Amino acid sequence: MYSRQFIDKIKRLYPNSTDMIYHAERGNEILGRLLDDSSPTSINNDRIMNATSLQELQTLALANKQKIELYKEWYEEAKSLFKHYQQ
């Protein structure tokens, strides 16, 4: 099983993703794929153009950074849960 702290981060960063929450709570390996697929690499140009403040952009950038870090954290947890990651 994933740690409670890790599952809580999933719920905070992906509150509307029932699939991610489901797989996190059950300790399923597929969660890594879902996190990888949803890890943002940039902020959409439309979001940038429609932002009303620098703070709004910083909030978006911080959320993106946290999601990328969450995937890295998943990998560290996966190494202890799934044997084929222990190389």
How many DSSP E strands? 0
Based on Cα principal axes, name the global outline: elongated
Tell me the Rg in angstroms.
15 Å
State mean pLDDT (0 to 100 scale). Answer: 91
Strand content: under 5%
Uncertain stretches of 5 or more adjacent residues: none
Terminal CA distance reads 20 Å
**Structural class, judged by helices and strands?**
mainly alpha
Share of helix among residues?
over 70%
Task: Report the sheet with the most strands, covering strand number, pairing sense and barrel closure.
Answer: none
What is the overall number of helices? 5
Features:
mainly alpha, 70% helix, elongated
Question: What this model shows, in words?
Answer:
70% of the residues lie in helices and 0% in strands. It has 87 residues and is an all-alpha fold. Helix 1 (4-13) packs antiparallel against helix 2, helix 1 (4-13) runs antiparallel to helix 5 and helix 3 runs antiparallel to helix 5 (54-81). The protein is elongated, with a radius of gyration of 15 Å. The two termini are 20 Å apart.
Topology, element by element:
Elements: H1 4-13, H2 18-26, H3 31-38, H4 45-50, H5 54-81
Helix pairs in contact: 1-2, 1-5, 3-5
